[in-house]
């Protein structure tokens, strides 16, 4: 391979009309700092015969013009190409014109492959300033390449038959709505707000009723505002409450009661207090994961016992706490076994005890059909919660966003 082709291949330049002459190192002073750069001296020429203005074949060579092109580099010295472009002059109309190359747009100084590098770094949830430092370009250039000419699609081609709905904290302490395909996990839409009006306007204005009627299930949390208009948008959709949020609801109710019991214990150094205070995580373990045979040293209470002994020690402090514990774990077990009949029986036979569990059970009763449907549904909000986790990581890495359009662009990049 000729040396010229090796240099161009190393810089990912594929224009056969460019002939690299040599590469030289040079030191420059930029903002008071001495920097080392690499310069590729090259010539761009190819035959042109027709004048772009008068269309006559009277073009003659008319010297060269020099262009300085910034090439893409990753964590290395800045690389420039000093490209001499062939000029032509028309003998008929005296128009002067030159040759062009796809490695850089007309009247631009940044190579076209720099944008691909910027997008590649953006997919890794790097901030604009970090991307600029890695690629040795200015932050304003990185921001322009990342956010310009990225129109958001008007709508997705197909809504699918199963959807996930959720929200996340976006800009200015507000919340935004996100909707994904439950099967392919692709984003359907990210809205600036989570207001019912905005969600209804989006789906009603962009999708025909026949398309919306094809949606069969929508998985969401226990957000009552979403449930109030789901059937207006999707008449045939079955609302499914995410299983994780059901378990989380009853576990939080149990923790509320546990905290109340702790406050009522006068002796803060007693064994029951230490069992409920320090080892609270054991009370959330599923029944089949609790070790009731092997004795081991339990930190906090500083004794040797089984996990079941410690749980019994804490629950014996309050009969109400024990009933709440049994209710929470019965619901958790029914969800785990996908047993809709058992879950329905638990909700139906529950006796109010005057604590936080009453509110949790009342909430589940109000959404009984959606809650029971979670036992038979094959879908959950796991995919959309994973996307929300990526969004939180992106927001933290970039120190937050003030422009929702930019934030949405970055979200679509990290999810693709």
Automatic annotation (TrEMBL):
Name listed for the protein in its UniProt record: ISL3 family transposase
So which domain of life are we looking at? Bacteria
Q: Entry's InterPro entries?
A: Transpos_ISL3, Transposase_DDE, Transposase_Znf
Transposase IS204/IS1001/IS1096/IS1165 DDE domain span: 166-411
Residue span, Transposase IS204/IS1001/IS1096/IS1165 zinc-finger domain = 48-93
* Leader peptide range in chain numbering: none
